Amino acid sequence: MKYYIFENKQLKRVKRFLYEKWIMNDFISYLLPDYSALIDDKIYAIETIYAGALDDDEDVLPFVLCRKNSELKLELEGVCFKTLTEEVEYFKSYETFRSRYFFLIAEIENNFA
After folding, report:
1. Residue 6: closest CA among 78, 60, 47, 87
2. What's this model's pTM, rounded to 2 decimal places?
3. What are the tens digits of pLDDT across the range 42-53?
């Protein structure tokens, strides 16, 4: 395994104990708030994750955006929840990750609201 933290705007390879300490104390400041919007009968959601503990052969892409679009339908038995799309994007750069997050939110709010 290899371990990366994000410090001083750069990814830095560290020993496991430093990674675990960083995860417990600092990584939360680099996550962006979960986003969700209910528009008509659809739910648009974005979640961010930091995954800096990687297998040795994995590319270093620790910033993760998870997008999910779901639909709610009222049926006789109750409300049916159906996932329409689910996408995951990986980023090496925090700036690109952050830009994509805000772009997706603007796209949802401008095109579907």
Report:
1. 60
2. 0.85
3. 999 999 999 999
